[in-house]
Amino acid sequence: MRKLIMFNRVSIDGFFAGPHGESHEWFVPDPAVDKASREMVGDADTVLFGRVTYQVFENHWPKAEKDPNASKEEKTVAKELKKMTKIVFSKTLKQVNWENSKLVNGDLVNEARKLRRQDGPAMLIFGSGTIVQQLTAAGLIDEYLFVLTPAILGDGKSLFKDVKKLNLVLLETRDFKSGNVILHYRAGK
């Protein structure tokens, strides 16, 4: 069975996006955090996306790989994402164009169950709040990896809106000079 890992940056006040969907403008960048995060997700080879997050990633990462001004770390992430299978859950998109992307417009929970039953490396979810909410409620996320970013947004989108209580078991923490903290949990019983 494949493990499903949620990866998200969250503000100190618990938002994964600003009130208008701002998804990265408030991050405190740190290449050491990016490197540690990649190590912690291991050999994951598949990413599950909702439409909005997929479109943000598709608009940024293919360009970053070729951008002469992009950092070495950013180019590394771009190359890794390019190779990964990207499964996009959307009822409104008609096609996906980023290399190794597949559009799925069926039932999210049932499709995620099917994917988890397969053999293979872990799968990731980046951003994609509604997907995280639905899969958390269905008990399908095995691990939660948060980058707690030293920013207070005051308002925004909650990652776990309408999700019932779930206990998590702390696996690891890492703190960084930038003020970011990685919190790695597994779903509890």
Concise description?
This protein has helices spanning 31-41, 51-66, 72-83, 108-117, 129-137; strands at residues 4-11, 15-17, 46-50, 85-89, 101-104, 123-126, 143-149, 157-158, 168-175, 181-187. The chain is of the alpha/beta class and 189 residues long.
Task: Spell out the blueprint of helices and strands.
Layout: E1 4-11, E2 15-17, H1 31-41, E3 46-50, H2 51-66, H3 72-83, E4 85-89, E5 101-104, H4 108-117, E6 123-126, H5 129-137, E7 143-149, E8 157-158, E9 168-175, E10 181-187
Parallel strand pairs: 1-6, 1-7, 3-4, 3-6, 4-5
Antiparallel strand pairs: 2-8, 7-10, 9-10
Describe this entry's structure for a reader:
With 189 residues, the protein is an alpha/beta fold. It has a single domain (4-13, 33-187), classed as Dihydrofolate Reductase, subunit A (3-Layer(aba) Sandwich). The protein has 5 helices and 10 strands; from the N terminus they run ββαβααββαβαββββ. It has helices at 31-41, 51-66, 72-83, 108-117, 129-137, and strands at 4-11, 15-17, 46-50, 85-89, 101-104, 123-126, 143-149, 157-158, 168-175, 181-187. The strands form 2 sheets. The chain has an 8-stranded mixed beta sheet with strand order 5-4-3-6-1-7-10-9, sandwiched between helices. A two-stranded antiparallel sheet has the order 2-8. A hairpin with a 5-residue loop joins strand 9 (168-175) and strand 10 (181-187). The chain is globular, with a radius of gyration of 16 Å. The chain starts with a strand and ends with a strand. 28% of the residues are buried.
